[in-house]
Amino acid sequence: MTTPIPVNPPSLPAPSGYSHGTLSGNTLHLGGQTALDADMRIVPGGIVEQFRQAFGNVLTTLRAAGGIPEDLVSLTIYLTDIPDYQAHGKEIGKAWRELAGPVYPAMAGIGTTALWQPEAMIEILGVAVIPDERLIRPSEGKVAAE
């Protein structure tokens, strides 16, 4: 059994009471990301901008463990306004392709009444499986296959 390793990229806000990700073997569990910027503020501008920031935060954690978007196996997207997300679907799809390319893992979109930050409209969490040849165990700072 492997000991879970926290994955907390320095470019994301320092976590307190949680980890941005947890690596167990080759599986990276990506903690829920809202649209927080480096200054711990939710980005302004609506659902498309919040999607871009939240998904970018997820990908930052993924990359810190050596992962790429193709390694994502599932994502769960929590939304405070599903119709708003649906109305901006084309723009969100464009942002997805800019950030991750044409890769789509298993996904769920779930409506909720509120998120941790009152101004947050979206939170994204997921799971990725990273091949040995790219896996980085952040606490060791090296590729696992070395």
Structure commentary:
The chain is 25% helix and 27% strand. It has a six-stranded mixed beta sheet with strand order 1-2-3-6-4-5, with helices on one face. A two-stranded antiparallel sheet has the order 7-8. With 146 residues, it is of the alpha+beta class. It is built from three helices and eight strands, in the order βββαβααββββ.
Overall mean pLDDT score?
Answer: 93
Counting helices, strands and paired strands, the structural category is alpha+beta
Distinct helical segment count: 3
Count of beta strands: 8
What is the fold's blueprint, element by element?
Layout lengths: L4 E3 L13 E4 L2 E7 L13 H18 L7 E8 L2 H6 L1 H12 L5 E6 L10 E8 L6 E2 L4 E2 L3
Parallel strand pairs: 4-5
Antiparallel strand pairs: 1-2, 2-3, 3-6, 4-6, 7-8
List descriptors:
single chain; 146 residues; alpha+beta; six-stranded mixed sheet; 3 helices; 25% helix; 27% strand; disordered C terminus
Short description:
With about 150 residues, the chain is an alpha+beta fold. It is built from 3 helices and 8 strands; from the N terminus they run βββαβααββββ.
